[in-house]
């Protein structure tokens, strides 16, 4: 009897972290170089070299490991999440993303544009990143110099806000920033500086 209760408690504990197969689906295109990935209400086109992983926590809809560029020692990560129409306003998110970097040597660029899914804001920050270290509720971080993060706030028409965040070492993220935009149908050449 005790063993059955242990199994039941274990399953109930893990249940919130199980991601339904209907959350995302991946299909390679005919050329085998890109893949279409359905993440709830959005469809992304990503390189097959981006390794899709099981989300590490229940706040993530999908996540990918992005191979390190030459000169970088570790892979970058792309995380996709959505909180419906929640998640805070544009300025609150921009402030939070910028403050994840230490002020000294920090560089930032904030732009906005339109794509097939709707309007979006891109916040690109480089410098020393206070990278989350451990479970989110602990709010622990460790400084990682030479980092870059590209965060996207994508307002999907009638469906809510999606957040795409690519984080890693500078060369790797910089080399994949345009690829990230292509993934959700954006074009950097048509973006404008963001202003509230």
Keywords:
196 residues, alpha+beta, Protein Transport Mog1p, Chain A, 8-stranded antiparallel β-sheet, 43% strand, globular
The helical percent reads: 10-25%
Give the tally of structural domains: 1
CATH level-two architecture: 3-Layer(aba) Sandwich
| Biggest sheet features | 8 strands, antiparallel
Q: How would you describe this protein?
A:
With 196 residues, this protein is of the alpha+beta class. The protein has a single domain (48-193), classed as Protein Transport Mog1p, Chain A, CATH 3.40.1000. Helix content is 19%, strand content 43%. The strands form 2 sheets. It has an 8-stranded antiparallel sheet with strand order 4-5-6-10-9-8-7-11, with helices on both faces. A 3-stranded antiparallel sheet has the order 1-2-3. The chain starts with a helix and ends with a strand. 26% of the residues are buried.
């Amino acid at each position: 009897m005790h063993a059955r209760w242990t199994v039941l408690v274990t399953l109930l504990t893990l249940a919130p972290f199980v991601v339904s197969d209907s959350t995302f689906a991946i299909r390679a295109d005919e050329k085998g170089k890109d893949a279409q990935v359905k993440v709830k209400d959005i469809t992304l086109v990503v390189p097959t070299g981006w390794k899709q992983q099981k989300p590490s926590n229940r706040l993530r809809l999908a996540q990918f490991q992005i191979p390190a560029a030459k000169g970088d020692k570790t892979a970058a990560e792309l995380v996709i999440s959505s909180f419906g129409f929640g998640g805070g306003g544009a300025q609150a998110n921009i402030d939070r993303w910028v403050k994840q970097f230490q002020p000294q040597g920090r560089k930032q660029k904030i732009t906005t544009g339109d794509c097939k899914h709707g309007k979006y804001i891109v916040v690109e920050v480089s410098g020393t990143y206070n990278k989350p270290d451990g479970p989110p509720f602990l709010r622990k971080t460790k400084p990682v110099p030479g980092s870059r993060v590209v965060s996207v706030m994508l307002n999907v028409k009638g469906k809510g806000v999606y957040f795409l965040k690519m984080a890693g070492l500078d060369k790797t993220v910089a080399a994949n920033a345009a690829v990230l935009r292509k993934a959700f149908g954006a074009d950097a050449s048509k973006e404008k500086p963001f202003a509230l």
